[in-house]
Amino acid sequence: MELVALLSTGKGSWNEVSRLIEAEDWEKIVLVGNEFAKKFTSEKKFDFIEVNLDAPVDDLKKQIYEKIKSKLSGLEVSLSIASGNGIEHMVLISALLQIPVGVNFVLATEEGYIQV
Predict the structure, then answer these.
(1) What is the pLDDT of residues 46-65, one digit of tens each?
(2) Alpha-carbon dihedral angle through residues 17, 81, 89, 33, given to the nearest 10 degrees
């Protein structure tokens, strides 16, 4: 399964993404964030998609869609939206559905991760 995660704002949300990355041997990891989010590190290899999270909604969706569609190869992804705000979440989900891929929401737990 491929993991897609938003790296934006929210106290402790980058830690949530880190725990989720470590919880599974993902086929591919794709992280979406702004220029500041490029500072995120992980021992596991990941693709980073830089977008302007302050762009108008239509522009942001286009940025994400254009940059992420070639990164994904499966028919569905595991998606973490623990980081970010509602508008960012909706735009990312909308871009993924436009590809189209199915979306399974995932959350890190003490035992690994769960689908919610």
Answers:
(1) 999 999 999 999 999 999 99
(2) 10
* Predicted model pTM: 0.95
Number of other CB atoms surrounding residue 39 within 10 Å:
9
pLDDT at residue 24 above 90? yes
- Residue ranges and CATH numbers for the domains of the chain are 2-115 (3.40.50.10770)
**Angle (deg, nearest 10), helices 57-68 and 86-98:** 50
pLDDT on residue 17: 95
Distance (Å, whole) CA 45 – CA 41? 9
95 CB neighbour count, 10 Å cutoff: 23
In sequence order, what are the residues at sequence separation of 6 or more whose Cβ sits closer than 8 angstroms to the Cβ of residue 114? 106, 107
